[in-house]
Amino acid sequence: MDRHEHDGGARLHAYLRSHRGGIEKQLAEWVRVPGILGVPEHQRDLLRSANWLAAAFREAGFPVVDVQPTGESHAVCAEWCEAPGAPTVLVYSHHDVRAVKPDNWEQTSPFEPVVRDGRLYGRGSSDAKAQILAHLWGIRAHLHQRSLTFDRHNQHALSRLDATNQTLPHSTSPAQAHARPAPAVNLKFIVEGEEEGGSPHLAALLEEQAERFQADVVLFSDTLLWHKDHPALCVGLRGMLSASLEVFGQERDVHSGAVSGNAPNSAFELARLLALLHDADGRIAIPGFYDDVEPLPEDLRQALAELPYSDEDWLKRSESGAITGEKGYTVLERLWLRPAVEVTSMIAGDPIGVSRAAVPAVASADLSFRTVPGQRVEKVADQLRQWVENTIGDAFRHTLTPDLETAQEPYRTPDHPAVAALERAMAVGFHNGKVGRMGNAGGGPAELLGRMLQAPVLFFGTGLVEDHWHDSDESVSLEVLMNGAVTLACFWDELARMQRAKDDGDGHLRR
Asked: Cβ(316)–Cβ(465) under 8 Å?
């Protein structure tokens, strides 16, 4: 890092520290809006959340901002494209939040945010409202830095003109000479309101306004960091396929004392099927499941091995209790580079209220598959269908419903000069000269964005595993939020600088 970068980073950090109170206040205000997707009584809150964000974009200076309906929610689109010749970046994120179980929250009620020990608690605080505010405050910091340089250059130019009794060009007024500059790159944002439901209307939005959303690079901001003190650049995420399985035994629930011993119990059969999903080595036992899985890139395996990791630290931060999974792979390889399947819910009998002591006629489970490069979700769905049909007992019927509408394919960032630019920006943002590599264990519409926009997708988020996404007591580290904002402020300068240096040569950023 040269002296200029060091000084610039220090100024950015100082600027954001001076606005920490405003950042906390703004995030808390937004968290109070319960924009929960999938709950009818909160549908109006999703519109309130979108309108809140639209106002925040306008306040940050964006000249083009609009709110667009998408299914049961609304997306916020913003543009600031006043940098001719510079790269265009499309930033993706979301403002909808997951449902809550208020009785499980201890630090505060889900939508009554509080700050404790450097963390702001509340639903959506980390996933993903803080990630969006990191962008808004990163832009503010970036513009502040540019305005300082802009003013110095213009003051120098005005002084030279005065000294030589010259005047400004006819087309330039003194007010324009001191005008607030635009970002160094062209910025576009899509902040959708249906991500927690699998982004079912995002493809239509991109297709209907294809020209508007064209970009040279996509920055996907709905991801985790490895550690607040050890930044790592995310270079890919797994795909996702959800499926619902129902197993039917008897024709109706029957008192166990009347039929016990000879009635087909759907709960037992469902449990048997789920137990057979994995073999003794922790591999998914569906025939052909691994046939298309690409070999792990050795450079990425080595990069993961270089991350600071210990079982003790991982168990403490993830609160997962124990380490299990596929033999032959490290925890981080299983987490980011290998496929997986999880049971996310199981229902049979009387889970709520007084038991009727009846043998359940129906048992159901929701499954979540995580796929990796080489696999296609449609093929995985077919493999699952065939496996269930071949494995379920003769005394039982079943229905299997893979959700292909909201399924998402895996994505890995290609080799691209913007990756190095983001790495340098992260080094400044997190005061750390060594930036590692990581993946993202969850899914998201990265492959969709890359395919429809024909642009490489990079990842940067400000979440941590200890932020409790989708769980009770969700929170965000305000320090990480601000370091993320510095990273983004630097990134825009890095991209612009790289484009100027490349001058449309090999590896150029523009189309």
From this structure: no
Residue 488 contacts residue 134 (beta carbons within 8 Å): yes
CB 247 within 8 A of CB 254: no
- Provide the pairing of β-strand 64-70 with 73-80: antiparallel
| Cross-strand bridge partners of residue 362 | 248
pLDDT tens digits, residue range 370-388?
A: 999 999 999 999 999 999 9
- 114's tokens: 């509080």
User: pLDDT tens digits for 32-63?
Assistant: 999 999 999 999 999 999 999 999 999 999 99
Task: Name the helix (H) or strand (E) containing 374.
Answer: none
Token readout for 499 is 């484009």
Residue 62's beta-bridge partner residues? none
Strand partners for 70: 73
Tell me the three-class secondary structure of 240-271, residue by residue. Answer: EEEEEEEEECCCCCEEHHHHCCCCCCHHHHHH
The neighbouring-strand residues paired with 341 are: 369
**How far is Cα 14 from Cα 9, in angstroms, rounded to an integer?**
9
pLDDT in tens, 163-191: 555 544 444 444 444 466 899 999 999 99
DSSP 467: G
Q: How many CB atoms lie within 10 A of CB 265?
A: 22
C-alpha count within 13 angstroms, C-beta hemisphere, residue 408: 29
Question: Could you tell me the sign of the dihedral formed by the alpha carbons of 169, 172, 173, 174, in that order?
Answer: negative
Rounded Cα distance, 409 and 451, in Å: 11
- Scored b (16 or more CB within 10 A) or e, 270-308 reads bbebbeebbeeebbbbbeebeeeeeebeeebbebbeeee
In degrees, rounded to 5, the angle at the alpha carbon of residue 168 between the alpha carbons of residues 163 and 173 is 130
According to DSSP, the residues that pair with 188 across neighbouring strands are 79, 90
Phi/psi for 52 (5° steps) reads -60, -45
How far is residue 166's CA from residue 232's CA, in Å, rounded to a whole number? 52
